[in-house]
Amino acid sequence: MDRQAILGYILIFVLLVAWLWLNSPRPDQQEVSKPEVHTQAQPHDSVKQKEPEQPREKAAMVEPLGKFFAGRGTGSEKVVTIETDLYTAEITTRGGLVKKWELKKYSTWDGHPVQLVDYEKKGDFSLLFTTSDGRLINTRDLYFDLTHTGGRRVKLERDEELTVDLTLPTTSGGRIVKRLRFKNGEYGFDAELKLVRVGDVIANFEYQLVWESGLRYAEHNSVDESGFAAAYAYAGKELIEIDAPGVDDHPQKNLSGVVDWVAMRTKYFALALIPREGTSEGGYLEGSHRVAPDKGAIESYSIAVKMPFKGGAEETGIFRVYFGPVDYGLLKSYGIGLENIVSLGWAWLIRPISEYVMLPLMSVLHYIIPNWGVVIILFSIIIKIALHPLTRSSMRSMKKMQALQPMMNEIREKYKDDPQKMNQQVLNLYKEYGVNPAGGCLPMLLQLPILIALYNVFRATIELRQANFVWWITDLSIPDNIFSLPFEIPFFGVRDISGLALLMGITTFIQQKMTVKDPRQKAMVWMMPVLMTLLFNGFPSGLNLYYFVFNLLSIGQQMLINRQAEQEPLRKAEPKKRKQGGIFGRLAKDLSRLKK
């Protein structure tokens, strides 16, 4: 393309822009043109446009609930209080909702009973469906009629049960009944939904049982609690999870097919909607994240079970609602995979160790010893004994490496100008004295899955929540802060200092001092303890107590191995004799005889 052509294209572009600007409508012309287009597109609105503004708004507000639930948007609220050995619940006729769910055996960080229902949302547990007259109905906005045999406050004892019926009639003669059954000694309740003569009301052959307002937080550190918060669905033996870790995150998951259950959780408490087996036809999960005061964070989740509706004269949906602690044994007792919401590590490696070794061992120890701090100490001793062969092999290998250090320094000095020759001589030295360079690292790698499993168990176990030990350690599930710095340590964000993390760092320093003898690794003697202290500073005190005791035991073990090593001088490895056996060994012997 030549220069004249380029100038021509530029001139054409400028003229086109100028022409569009000159012929574009002025702002006053645009305002006039809008009603003309609107009138042509929707001629049936021409009469409404002549009406005054205020009457038109009132006309749009007429019967927002449609013809089937007209008048049910107002009413008088009645509340039934149910008290059991485990919780106190309130059921309200406004929406037929669970208004309050207060756990008796658990308290918040500031000493109040744990109340899991959001106060601001005034309750939850509603039905969602579309009506044949085009309305999206959420029953949380409607008033139900109350029927039950007891008074407004009922206390259940022993094996007593209570049934509460909440009825929502339709103008067409049908009704929706929520029958809730509560039994003493169980977390949650049974729900039976009866849809009677509402075939002309519910459209799209579907309704949803929903919990929209999430769960109230109960811990002091909302960021840590948000780290565990999530929503789940379980279908076909597969766990589906959504998480909203950031402010801009708004995850959603729309599921089709049979769903065994949907659930949500915080760090220590959970809610699950469990339909009768094989009756659901899908589920829905949604999450959000908002910023809380003092650099806090709160994640909220909505869950729903999709249920089929065939338009029959009477149809029933039966559900079990779990509403209580994230207790692994309790969740597993349901036999539907609900325990999968407990964070115990990778399913293919870490989770089996946590599930079949760590949790049972801790439960047995706690059955004998009530104090969880003492249980952790005994637990660390048992794990140390179990890992003794690995750690002993690692320490002995490292001790041999230290004994060879002077010879290795001589080789490095002698062959400093020939790296290839130097490496070959070092390998020959290892071989001569029977030292495996990976002998110190391999046992530590084999221990890693066990240590990760312990980390997950101590973080996820509700039994450690608010468990007291001694002195300043009053809650084994949170850091045991002993003082605060006047500044925040950059990158790590540490201001409050944990006592057990500090003790663990000191014992790590002693270990490093005993094992690291290479002058080139002197920085590791202090760098590793500092990093470990900062990293573990925000961990639960129960986990730091375990590592502190484990380090003390390792120091004692290292001292014992050092003493044994001093009594055993370094010897060269004896050459291994090759054994001739099998078919090839016999064949070699026969050939040697024939030669003779």
Topology:
Layout: H1 3-23, H2 27-41, H3 46-49, H4 53-61, E1 79-83, E2 87-92, E3 97-107, E4 113-115, E5 126-130, E6 136-138, E7 145-148, E8 153-155, E9 161-169, E10 175-183, E11 189-196, E12 206-211, H5 222-228, E13 230-235, E14 238-242, E15 252-256, E16 261-265, E17 269-275, E18 282-292, E19 296-308, E20 314-325, H6 328-332, H7 350-368, H8 372-386, H9 388-403, H10 405-414, H11 419-433, H12 442-460, E21 481-489, E22 494-498, H13 499-515, H14 522-536, H15 541-567, H16 582-595
Helix pairs in contact: 7-8, 7-12, 8-15, 9-12, 9-15, 10-11, 13-14, 13-15
Overall SS class: alpha+beta
Query: How many DSSP helices?
Result: 16
Main beta sheet: 9 strands, antiparallel
Q: Which percent range fits the helix content? A: 25-40%
Distance between the termini: 94 Å
Give the strand order of the largest sheet, numbering strands 1, 2, ... along the chain.
Answer: 7-9-10-11-20-17-16-13-14
Radius of gyration: 35 Å
What attributes does this structure have?
16 helices; six-stranded antiparallel sheet; nine-stranded antiparallel sheet; 596 residues; alpha+beta; 38% helix
Walk me through what this model shows:
Helix content is 38%, strand content 25%. The protein has helices spanning 3-23, 27-41, 46-49, 53-61, 222-228, 328-332, 350-368, 372-386, 388-403, 405-414, 419-433, 442-460, 499-515, 522-536, 541-567, 582-595; strands spanning 79-83, 87-92, 97-107, 113-115, 126-130, 136-138, 145-148, 153-155, 161-169, 175-183, 189-196, 206-211, 230-235, 238-242, 252-256, 261-265, 269-275, 282-292, 296-308, 314-325, 481-489, 494-498. The strands form four sheets. A nine-stranded antiparallel beta sheet has the order 7-9-10-11-20-17-16-13-14. The longest helix has 27 residues, at 541-567. 30% of the residues are buried. Mean pLDDT is 79; it is low at 1-61.
